[in-house]
Amino acid sequence: MPEKVTRLAVRLAGMSFAIALTDEQWELVADLFDPPGRRGAPAQIPRRQMVDALLFIGRTGCQWRYLPERYGSWTAVWAQWRRWRANGVWAAAMARLAAIVRVLHDREPVPSMVMVDAQTVKGGRYGPTFHEAGGRGGRTIGTKRTLLVEILGLPVAARADSARPHDVVAARELLRDRLPDLPSVRAIVGDRAYRGLAALAERKHLALDIKAPPPGSSGFVPIRPLYRIEHAFAQLGRWRRLSRCYEGTEASARAWLEVASVGYLAWRAAA
User: Fold this and answer.
1) Main-chain phi, psi angles of 136, to 5 degrees
2) Distance CA 74, CA 198 (A)
3) Any residues with CB less than 8 A from the CB of 59 and at least 6 apart, and which?
4) pLDDT digits over 133-177, tens only?
5) Whole-prediction pTM value?
6) Among residues 128, 123, 127, 126, which one has the least CA distance to residue 145?
7) Backbone angles phi and psi of 180, in degrees to 5
């Protein structure tokens, strides 16, 4: 993380909810979305304007063709969205903002523990899609969203699959992909559904802490610290693009989850 970004994070205060980025918020991630020395023809639409357009779509659920004219041509924004999705730019912005919020709370940028959980949501797309039946009872035709969240409730990594794979399968793939980017992680925390991660945790020399409700309890019981990941899912659920899964590919479903996480993390940085 650039030193100037760390210094700037300490001065963040009074920023608005991140549908349109403030100058301070944009400076934190500008080099990711608009890298210096970028080759090619000059951009017709400023990259910051495109980021604001995608945050607007994610927050409101607006269809591409109804994107307000102030953001420029929707086809140009869509084309840039595809490039950022393929290059992992939103995931990089998500990781950087999570590190900045941790620094603001006097913690190390990279967490030493991550919690894992998944959410199954219905699909809302007509036409070709990756959605399959799964979830509780196998009755939900849609997608499974898996998050890694650290102790402050900040999402640090995301994955989207069809609803069919078991939670452990999706979590195992997410951890394999992202643990190299989280070198300080020493423990994984999950509920009883994630006991199947024991072999992976042993190979990676990580502690696996399985949390369970107190004996004799019934109904929903908040489990410390796993309630923080439930809170993260609830906050991301306020982004209308995530109310259902409207995407045709797993890559797009994951990227919109990352867009919402970037907006949420930018808001957390101002809290």
Assistant:
1) -60, 120
2) 46
3) 19, 239, 240, 241, 260, 263
4) 998 888 899 999 999 999 999 999 999 999 999 999 999 999 999
5) 0.90
6) 123
7) -60, -25
